[in-house]
Design brief:
- The chain is about 40% helix and about 10% strand.
- α3 links the parallel β1 and β2.
- By secondary structure, the protein is an alpha+beta fold.
- A two-stranded parallel sheet has the order 1-2.
- It is elongated, with a radius of gyration of 15 Å.
Length: about 80
């Protein structure tokens, strides 16, 4: 949930949804996002719901990994600072 809080704080993000289903397909169909963003370990063809997003006029964005940029590392640093 920490990662969701960080993403939700970004001005360019309209919503972050945590889901318990195996895939977000039904959620994607309900929300009809304009942009669906995934990390660099995905290809557009492997993104669940990509066809639905495109069918509704949306786009899929794959963000490349950036060396030294990690949400997990950022969260660890924040927790380390807070524990002092």
């Amino acid at each position: 949930h920490d990662r969701a809080v960080i993403l939700d704080a970004l001005q360019v993000v309209d919503a972050v949804v945590i889901f318990s289903e195996e895939t977000p397909l039904e959620l994607i169909r309900e929300l009809k996002p304009d942009i669906l963003v995934k990390g660099g370990d995905y290809s557009e063809d492997s993104v669940v719901g990509a066809d639905d997003v495109r069918k509704n006029g949306g786009t899929i964005r794959i963000l490349p990994f950036r060396k030294g940029c990690s949400t997990s590392l950022l969260l660890e640093k924040i927790q380390e600072i807070n524990s002092k």
